[in-house]
Structure formats: structure tokens, C-alpha cells
Amino acid sequence: MNSIWIFEDVNLFNLLCPHKFKEYKTCHDFDSYNKGDYIYFEEDSANKVFLIEKGKVKIGYYNSDGTEVVKAILKKGELFGERAIFGQQRREEFAQSIDGNTSICPVGVDTMHELMRSNKSFSFKIYKFIGFKFMKLERRLQLLLFKDSKTRLKEFLDELCNDYGYNCNQTGDHIINHPYTQKDIASLIGISRPTLNILMNELKDERVIDFNRKQIRIYKTSA
């Protein structure tokens, strides 16, 4: 598991974007999106994968009653739309920019297959990353289906700690510097923003955590 967590820290944009490859650089452009712009919709043709140069992208779908379900919020260096590599013909989700200045590196499926065929190490890293991403998504869906709101939040904070945390040498507390807004976190664990505020403040009153806009401290005594 540790090797997979370490792999997640790799900036896939630097590894994969065709702009970095001499044979593709002259004919390759980046796509820019404003906040709220869609990169693709459900049922769109799945003929590309995408890497985030900067900004954030929300991946989700709508239930039959129109309720939005957020599967992931991705940041710089991450890959999405990757099921096209395995032959997906139509999108089963939407991808939407949630940052005011998002830049995307689109990679055609044929180009991706060429890169993977020509470099076994490259291909292995792609499969490993996709496998990790599926594991993470499955874990989050299990949280949404089987856990109450407070437990979902506490387990999500543990996930954030694995992704973005470090130990504070003075106190032994876990310090998490993360890229998410409260709206992002609420969407990812399937609760409203007001409910998130209530739960965060409950944990703060219980001396489990302290937090501000971009940092969460998990106290050592709460472990």
C-alpha cells in the first residue's frame, strides 16, 4: 500500500503530457476552462484522456432525480477520463472545472496507446495509477453507502492526512495542508456545507481537530 501512496505523489502531467514529447510538441495545444465550464458531459464520446496542468476538476454524475453525486475532485498533475484507454465509447460521468483558471492537457486515445506500447515502464505507471484511483473511489463509495455523516467526515480526514499530512515535531499532531474548500469536502462525503460546518465545529469542540481555510490539525490525543 505504501508504494501506491508514494506513486500518487507523482505529477502525471510531467510524466505523460504529449507536450513533453518532441514528436508531439509542435501539434499539441492546451485547453483552458473557466470556473463552471464542462470539459465533457455524460454520454459524450470518450476519445481522449486528460491531464490537469493547473486548476481543479470535479468528476461526477446525476442520479435519476437530478441529484449531483461527486466522485472526485482532482488537482494539478492528475489524470481523468482514463477509461477511454480501455475501450469506453461514451462517458458515464461529467468533468467540470471548479477553478477560475484551469488548464488541461488533452491526450488522444490513439496517442496514449502509442506511448504505452513504446514504453513498458510508462505503461506500468499508468496501470498502477489507474488501479490506485479505482481503489480510492471504491473506498469513498463505501463511506457514502454505509457510514453516518460524522464517521464519513472522520474517515475522510484520515484520507486527507495520508494524502497531504505531516507530523508537527513540536506536538506530534497531524498537520494537513490541503487544496479543498469546505464545499469540495461536503460534496465528496455527500453532505451539505452547513452540515459540514456543524460537524467540523463539533470535532473542534471535542478537541479532535482544529482548522482554518487551508489547514486542518488532528490532535495527537485523538488518535
TrEMBL record:
Keyword Transcription attached: yes
Keywords linked to the UniProt accession: DNA-binding, Transcription, Transcription regulation
Segments forming domain Cyclic nucleotide-binding: 12-91
CDD domains: CAP_ED (cd00038)
Pfam family, one: cNMP_binding
SUPFAM superfamilies associated with the record: cAMP-binding domain-like (SSF51206), Winged helix' DNA-binding domain (SSF46785)
Coiled coil: none
Domain spans labelled HTH crp-type: 147-222
Alphabetized PANTHER family for the sequence: CRP FAMILY TRANSCRIPTIONAL REGULATORY PROTEIN, HTH-TYPE TRANSCRIPTIONAL REGULATOR ARCR
Name used for this protein in its record: Crp/Fnr family transcriptional regulator
Species name: Winogradskyella vincentii
